[in-house]
Specification:
There is one protein chain. This protein is mainly alpha-helical. It contains 7 helices and 2 strands; from the N terminus they run αββαααααα. Helix 3 packs antiparallel against helix 6 and helix 4 crosses helix 5. It is globular. The termini are far apart. About 35% of the residues are buried.
Length: about 210
């Protein structure tokens, strides 16, 4: 019931929230498809609900790593994610190399980290991936990578509005985020990598995708 309610919130299906338009439809560059952005205050409710229903330690998997190990298991997957995500996206024509700076960068950073990355990682990694792993363990499956794979598949599906290519790229990215959480046990590490991938996309490639030919 909780997951159903959370998904309803994520897809803006629960009334009572006023989402403020922050960026009206515009082309960020000559090669980019139109982009708009609302300040969606319903999606962060996912994060707040999980936080309020348990203490913050419930999001952790119990790994006791040193600071250096946490950095290594966060930075190395992020570096590897760049070719695995952006090369397929570029070869498919979904994105094009198009570096630029825009005056909406500051509002995009605030929105993307606090209202997108934090909420999605709390739900998909801190809540869903951990629940799937616990469920698989009950059936004798102790390899946490299966939970990473299943969660990344679901992460790709919920990005269906962007089309099949976007779903595939989101699934690849979701695997990276899930792997970081699997190795570190810290949902904040997955948040950082998630935001790093999104920021690289925003700064160096057509955002949110290339203009259809």
């Amino acid at each position: 019931m909780l997951c159903t309610f959370i998904l309803a919130i994520a897809f803006h299906g629960v009334p009572g929230f006023v989402n403020i338009p922050a960026i009206h439809p515009t082309n960020l560059s000559a090669l980019s498809a139109p982009f708009s952005m609302d300040l969606n205050f319903d999606q962060p409710m996912v994060m707040l609900m999980v936080y309020c229903m348990s203490d913050l330690s419930a999001l952790e998997t119990g790994n006791h790593l040193s600071c250096w190990q946490l950095i290594k298991h966060t930075v190395v997957p992020y570096i590897w994610s760049i070719p695995f995500i952006f090369i397929p996206g570029y070869l498919s024509g979904f994105i094009l190399f198009d570096p630029y700076l825009t005056n909406i960068l500051w509002i995009w950073i605030i929105h993307n980290f606090f209202l997108v990355c934090m909420a999605e990682e709390v739900f998909f990694r801190g809540c869903l991936q951990r629940a799937i792993q616990n469920g698989l363990t009950c059936y004798g499956v102790h390899n946490g990578l299966w939970a990473v794979i299943l969660t990344s598949f679901l992460f790709g599906i919920v990005h269906f509005k962007g089309g099949f290519i976007y779903m595939g790229l989101a699934a690849i990215a979701g695997f990276v985020y899930g792997y970081v959480y699997y190795k570190t046990g810290k949902v904040v590490c997955a948040m950082i990598v998630h935001f790093g991938v999104n920021l690289l996309h925003f700064l160096l490639f057509t955002y949110p995708m290339a203009m259809a030919k």
